[in-house]
């Protein structure tokens, strides 16, 4: 990840398989990394929201990150999330990530205590300075309850604080404004922030984001079907719109697996995480579909729902 | 608007020019309709949010709607908003719209009183039945504070209650799921809802929405630059992505006019509406840039900001 | 309502009984007014949220308001809500209320279009000036989606724009700050806003609000048990805390009727309005428990739930 | 804290004084504990939101908690917050608290990942079982973005999972329903949850909460004026309403210190925390008014604002 070469392509946020005791299943995690690299992905995002990082103790975070870095063995860059409530706590995670050999850090705005844009800007500057690794901002209002403004990201991109943005805000209009302000789809690489990497977390509209000028995608669903996202990315790069849209539509249908639990009877997180993990189990990649902490586990009907979506997308042999 | 032919293309939500007394300036409104039709638009949405419908009395609504319908003289279809708090009040507006000769109705979910999805579904069914015109659902959570679910819109599309959707929710992922569930970009016209028209209100990502399979766009900014949106629409239809993206990027820059007031010193609505109306004044289309009700008016600096954006987009001669 | 005498006491927001055709049942409404006045209330709030004003057409609003004013025949003052989206539309309602003989107007901030505090302040000033009646601000963020600040209400109280506040924000801390800033519980009547009337809409904590220095209460539940709220008010005035708290606790239990529908299967509004109206029917005050518009109606089980709460509170003979 | 004796009275959430290097200033913290105990408080809440716990590393948390427990030396019980994103992470903090000698744990619902009521219930049960200390639920939607329902708290109170509730939700109506459901103000001690302690975090309406039947208060402002809150509590216990309301009104005015920064130029948290800490510095209790992490510090004008409020409340000699 040289600083003049922005990260591009498919960068899945790696799930964390758990064993029966709720500990990180390192053998399964190693197999998952192989599954992703074999799918052709261009990088990995460890300890992102899809890793259930919020549910992992610091010790478990270390095990997960080290397992991913060891398994990937330098084949693609590894970004490490430092998710926590505030700057001082994120700096502790940053130090652990640096020691483990991560290539870059990914940080949200502070959360829990109500904050202010000036404090968020300062937060990223401190993380960049003391974290001592390239820094990606992670815009995720659904978890963090504040939105990074176009003006803030632009300022932090232009002064070199940020190396990139992972945009999971769902605000595609704002993302478009950012891209245009940074020079537009074609001009951006020649613009004031030549190495700024814009990755969308909106896994259902990747074709649209790439059309607009995003550099890549961080798809939670990419754990299940990395090759599908890679095909979508390649089709867009080659200008083959028809193939890209077809691939995206197949992935949209596959994504329906996240509505696994009976409506209103599961949390959005436990339903989606459970679906991804059980899909990986059904595909033979991981040993168990267990989710972390106090989350509701998928029941038989929900697992059947996941299986139907895998078959529908051609990922399991149709019986 | 035959029922087997869905509405496609650019359908601007027509602004309502006001005179010094705060009444509808019908001469300016007539000129605005000409400006739009001359720009090549495929339909008009009268009494939408951009008309400041929420600020117009029933008498003023009638004047505005009748002026638009008379000016357009059947050249393109006219959709009429029936924005109000609940079904019974919307039915009063529906009757007025029908008498005025509107081609279709556009209705949000009920608002003010907290509601329930079952009540929203029933609301649309009653409007369709008693409103006696084709009905578009208007998904606008920023004003209405509830979101129409994919499942609800699909059900109401498939049973014929709804003729179309104007999606201003900003939830592009949800919109994509709807399109896929209705048959996908290519299959949709052959699917169970052949005449269902999906129009996006996300004016900054129109190329992306059309790529995904939307039928058209309802752009507030289309008041100012209807021809630009028509060029964008045509470029996408012709598969000329490069031209489409360039046009979209120009429109994104033009849209920057809505940040007209000093940050924090204007409302989002007064700033955007004031920008559109002053832009129309600067373009010679309407007489005054006044916004309705108790809204803050643009000051000199804000008007200069609007003018800069018009010049930047090539809509005013560069001085 | 002389201007030097603030409104004090219990001022129920009058429900609107409907007949089978969904029209205002004026005979039932007249009986409801008698029920309230006989209960000892100190004023009536017509066309408030509990009247389902959002669901009534302008014609129905006129019928409801005129019926209330005629039935009350000057025995207590009648405040009239002018609920609508913006200033110009509220002015139309204000004129109707003035002609009907209302004693004061009650207005929320503008809603639907996003607004700004300066625009809200201006809104109330215009309503006061052109509405030509004493004006109460109605703070109801759950419907209006903005909160009136302490500073704004204080400014509008001190300059005479507002005659009073109906606070249904649930922000008891903010209300306390307002009371203290206006001179404190005891000093307020001698302070800069001698005639400013603070009415809480928080019907479950009336004893607490009166302790803090509020002047009265606008309880939706007061439709069902006006005499209970009057006893509570009198007990607090007489300093009989024990009796006040007991009465409040009985009313809290009675209020449980609003959880009438199966959880998640009714809207909060249809459940509460249905409960109040069916309670009035069971008490013999009104003919039907029907709610307006597309709202879900109470089923048998929900009505039984209401009846149990009436019996529990001693309002129906225990069988 | 025997299990048959609920915690009652004033239980301030202890601030964390910091030195110039941003580390816990243990000498100042020891003086703060003395200030609070000397003020007559009935317990201390260590590592609550007012401790800036979200900004402290695990090492700093340990220092702060151990310092408080050592300084208090058993004179009053010490509750320890275990604030973190999820159950597994809170269990790590719980173990640290138990080893440090805390008397009880205080836990919010999980946050960051979207959750579900069933998961929240399970979360508290796991914390109670494995945390091995009495457990208080901390209802703080402004930070946690979910609200504990009356039904959930009641269930967890009745089955012994929870020993108490710290309610900072601002939902006084909901709190009243809980009190009534648990037996009412007078009956509660004889009811099904005899030892359940209800503490309000609404520091501006303590008289009202005690009137309603709350057991005590956890006031952030109690760091600055513990004796004032103790007088308020004692006045309510003695039934001296007049004195209680006067004390509460004085404290409401004192609380005005939290609006320290220029409006819009500080976060709500940095403004309030900075005000409390600078007030403690001006009172000679702590050495510096510094707040943690990337928060904005009070400037001269803001400190003068704090000082004025201290003088106004009679806490500093009037110059």
Automatic annotation (TrEMBL), chains A, B, C, D:
The keyword Nucleotide-binding does not apply. Keywords: Lyase, Schiff base. CDD domains: DHDPS-like. Gene3D superfamilies: Aldolase class I (3.20.20.70). Belongs to the DapA family. This is Dihydrodipicolinate synthase family protein.
């Amino acid at each position: 990840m040289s600083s003049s070469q922005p990260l591009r392509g498919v960068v899945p946020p790696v799930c964390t398989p758990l064993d029966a005791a709720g500990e990180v299943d390192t053998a399964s995690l190693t197999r998952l990394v192989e599954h992703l690299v074999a799918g052709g992905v261009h990088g990995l995002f460890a300890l992102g929201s899809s890793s259930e990082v919020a549910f992992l103790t610091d010790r478990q975070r270390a095990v997960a990150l080290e397992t991913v870095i060891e398994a990937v063995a330098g084949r693609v860059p590894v970004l490490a999330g430092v998710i926590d409530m505030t700057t001082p706590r994120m700096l502790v995670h940053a130090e652990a990530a640096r020691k483990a050999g991560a290539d870059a850090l990914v940080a949200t705005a502070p959360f829990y205590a109500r904050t202010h844009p000036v404090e968020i800007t300062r937060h990223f500057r401190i993380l960049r300075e003391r974290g001592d690794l390239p820094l990606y901002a992670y815009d995720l209002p659904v978890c963090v309850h504040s939105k990074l403004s176009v003006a803030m990201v632009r300022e932090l991109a232009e002064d070199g604080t940020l190396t990139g943005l992972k945009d999971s805000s769902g605000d595609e209009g704002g993302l478009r404004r950012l891209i245009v302000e940074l020079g537009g789809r074609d001009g951006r690489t020649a613009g004031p922030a030549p190495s700024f990497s814009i990755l969308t977390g909106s896994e259902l509209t990747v074709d649209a984001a790439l059309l607009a000028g995003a550099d890549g995608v961080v798809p939670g669903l990419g754990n299940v079907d990395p090759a599908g996202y890679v095909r979508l990315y390649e089709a867009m790069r080659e200008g083959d719109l028809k193939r890209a849209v077809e691939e995206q539509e197949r992935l949209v249908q596959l994504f329906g697996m996240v509505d696994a639990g009976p409506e209103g009877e599961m949390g959005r997180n436990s339903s989606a995480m459970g679906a991804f993990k059980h899909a990986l189990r059904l595909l033979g990649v991981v040993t168990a579909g267990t989710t972390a902490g106090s989350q509701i586990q998928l029941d038989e009907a929900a697992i059947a729902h996941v299986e139907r979506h895998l078959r529908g997308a051609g990922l399991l042999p149709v019986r």
